[in-house]
Structure formats: structure tokens, C-alpha cells
Amino acid sequence: MWLGNQTYLADFILEGLFDDSPAHLFLFGLTMVVFLVAVSGNTLTILLICVDHGLHTPMYFLLSQLSLMDLMHVSTTIPKMATNYLSGKKSISSVGCTTQHFLYLSLGGAECLLLALMSYDRYVAICHPLRYTVLMSRKVGLMMAVTSWLGASLNSLIHTVILMHFPFCGTRKIHHFYCEYPAVVKLVCGDVTLYETTVYICSIVLLLLPIILVSTSYGFILHSVIEMRSAGSKRNAFATCSSHLIVVSLWFGACIFSYMRPRSQRTPLQDKVGSVFYSIITPTLNPLIYTLRNKDVAKALRRVMRREVT
């Protein structure tokens, strides 16, 4: 096993996001504020869905899983980055790097699958509203969540084990603020062309296939909306789908930018920018988008607040 080899157990060095300049100190503070907003927003969404009985539906159960993934995603990367910056240390143990790689890849893959399955939920709600409780029962919603978690975790486990079995060269300095695949694979000694091709194919499966499912679902939704005679029904349908579409666009856009580009076109700065967007910005915006644009969530929040006051 690779853990038995001291070469593999040597620490990695994380370059981080910021230096000691005043401008970067301000950006670090801003990042921590965004992190707190992400943690607070996603935690509030999860608690709200658990507490309010009006939100105990498959749709909001899936939304709670999305918020849990976002909460875990920011907690996997930002605390370590902040700890290294404040302490002046830049190291991360081999076990820590392996764990971080597994978690971020699992959560990212799970979110891709879950967002695709959530589009099916919207398709059923709009195109087959009378059969919604049958086609989207609690059991179906639970199966969707389990499939997302287990499928992505298995994919991440395989890639993490393979990557961490490779020997690493030089100072083991990762030009990133966490152990993300594109930055770590650059440290590998030897030819990794076959492995990179495999990862690229898996990225296509986890990104393009969900996008196809989302596009197909919304194609049917658009067709149904066009055939609606009531302007009010059309507005309700667009309001129901707009939040999910915004989240899907933000998430898949950032992931495609980070993982679908050839290695020759990658730079450390571009990798960092893409990672900041989908690992910090998107998890922060998701609960805000769903809360501000979803009347049911807003009403549930007001009900809970009134209950606490009285």
C-alpha cells in the first residue's frame, strides 16, 4: 500500500490564494465573509426544510441535499486555506491532501448528478402535475439523493486511489489553494497520458450527460409552457424553473471551464479562478437564489420567524 511508503507520506505544499500584501489581506477578509455567508445560507436552508412541514416534499428534500453538498464543499477547502494563511504555514499532509481530493471530487460529482435529477423533478411538476405524487414520491426523491451521493463517491474513490499511487517529483508544491486534480496531477513523475484521458472521459460523463438530461427536461418544459393558455400559469412555470436554471448555469459553466480544457491550455491562475467560482461563489449564491426567488421558501422562513417571536 502507498501509505506504507515514506515517499508518499511526505507533505505537500499549497501555494494558496493570497500573499501578505494589503490588497490580498483585504481579499482574504472578503473571502472569509463570503465563506460565512455560504455556511449560514446553506445551514439555514437545511434547517428550514427540516423544520417547516410545508417544505417536506421531494423537491425541497433534493434542495436540502444540494445545500448540504454546498456546505460540505466550502468546508472542505476554505478552512484549510485560511488556517495556512493565518499561521504562515503552507503544508498539508499526504493523508490530508488525499482526503481533501476525495471529498471535493465526491461533492462536485454528486452536485452534477443531483442538479440533473432535479431537472426531472421540475419536468414532472410542470408537464405531469396530476401524476407528480406518483412519479416523484418520497421514495423516488430518496433514491435520487442516494444515487447522487454513492455514484459520485465511487467515482471519486477510484480516481483518488489511482492518483495518489503515482510517485510525485520535486518539492511537491501544489500551485493551488487546495488539492484539486489538475494541480496535483502536474506533480506526477512519468507518463500519465492514459490516466488523464480516462479522467477526461469521466468528466464528459459527469458533466455533459447531466447537461443533456437538463436540456431535454427543459425542452419538454418549454413545449408545455408554450401550450399553456393562462399567462399566470406561464409566469408560475418560469418562476418555478428559473432558480434551478440559474444554479445549473453557474455550476456547470464553472466546472466545464475547470475540467474540459486541454492541459496545454491550463494556467495556475485560470485553475484558481475557476475553482474559486465553483467552490466558493456558487455555494454562496445557491441558497440566496433559491430563497429570494422561491415563494414557498420565503413564506416558510417568515412562518418560522413568526413562530420563534411568539
UniProtKB/TrEMBL annotation:
The topology of this chain with respect to the membrane is:
Multi-pass membrane protein
Protein localization: Cell membrane
Gene Ontology molecular function: any one? olfactory receptor activity
Q: Which Gene Ontology cellular-component terms appear in the entry? A: plasma membrane
Q: Where is the G-protein coupled receptors family 1 profile domain?
A: 41-290
Q: Where is the signal peptide?
A: none
| PANTHER family on file | OLFACTORY RECEPTOR (PTHR26453)
For this chain, the family text in UniProt reads: Belongs to the G-protein coupled receptor 1 family.
**What is the recorded name of this protein?**
Olfactory receptor
Classify the source by domain of life. Eukaryota
| Membrane-spanning intervals of the chain | 25-49, 140-158, 198-225, 237-260, 272-292
Q: Which UniProt keywords apply?
A: Cell membrane, G-protein coupled receptor, Membrane, Olfaction, Receptor, Sensory transduction, Transducer, Transmembrane, Transmembrane helix
Organism encoding this protein: Sciurus carolinensis (Eastern gray squirrel)
